[in-house]
Design brief:
The chain has 213 residues and is an alpha/beta fold. It is globular. It has one domain: Rossmann fold. The chain has helices at 46-59, 76-80, 121-133, 153-161, 175-190; strands spanning 2-3, 11-12, 15-16, 30-38, 64-68, 95-96, 102-104, 139-146, 166-171, 195-200. Strands 6-7-5-8-4-9-10 form a seven-stranded mixed beta sheet, with helices on both faces. The chain has a three-stranded antiparallel beta sheet with strand order 1-2-3, with no helix packed on it. The chain is built from five helices and ten strands. The longest helix has 16 residues, at 175-190. It starts with a strand and ends in a 13-residue tail after the last strand. Helices cover 27% and strands 21% of the residues. Helix 3 (121-133) runs parallel beside helix 4 (153-161).
Amino acid sequence: MFKLWGNERGHLWGEKCSAPPKLYPGGQSKIARVIAVMSGKGGVGKSSVTSLMAVNLRKLGYRVGILDADITGPSIPKMFGVKRVPPNQGLLLPAISQKGIKIMSLNLLLESEDEPVIWRGPIIAGAVKQFWTDVNWGELDYLLLDMPPGTGDVPLTVMQQIPVDGIVVVTSPQDLAVMVVKKAVRMAGIMETPLLDMCKIWPTLPAKMWRPS
C-alpha cells in the first residue's frame, strides 16, 4: 500500500509525492560533514558507537557535534555527563562536553532526565528538524546524528531534509537483529543515502570499552 521510489521519495495510494526541500543549519553554523548512525533495531549499541566515533574524531583534532535524534529515548547527555544547554537569547546553543564535543538533545531541555516524551511521530520529526535549524552549531567538521530505532518519521525526515553525507549502520550478531537492521540498509538505498560502514557489536566486549567520556 505504501512504496518509496528513488526520485519521488514517496508514492501513497497512487499519489506521487515530491521530496521536501533541504533545510539549512541554524544561525552561522558551518557544518562540513553530517553522518547518521542508525540501526533499525533498538538496543544494539548505536548510541555507544556514536559516542565513541565522536570522541575518536575529537582526539584526531576535528570539531565534532552530536545531534541526539532519539527524541523519546535520548542517552547521549548521560553518556557525556552534560545536563543543560547554556542560556541564550536567540538560537539554542549546544551543551559542550569535557572533551569539547557539542551536544544537543531533548533531555537537555527537560526539567528531569527521566521525564517521558509522549509525542506523536510528526512532532518528534519536527523537533529533530529544529535541532538542525534552530541551534547555532558554529563551525563543525563532523556532526553525528544518533538516530532512533526503526525506519519511520525521524529517519525519513533526516534523509529527506538534512544533507546527510552517509550513514553508519550498527548491528549485533543475532539473526533477529540482522534481519531488522537490513531494513535500515534498504531504506538508505531507497533514499539514495550512501552507506559508509557497518559496525557489528559483540556483547562479549569488556564494559570499560563503552566509556566515551
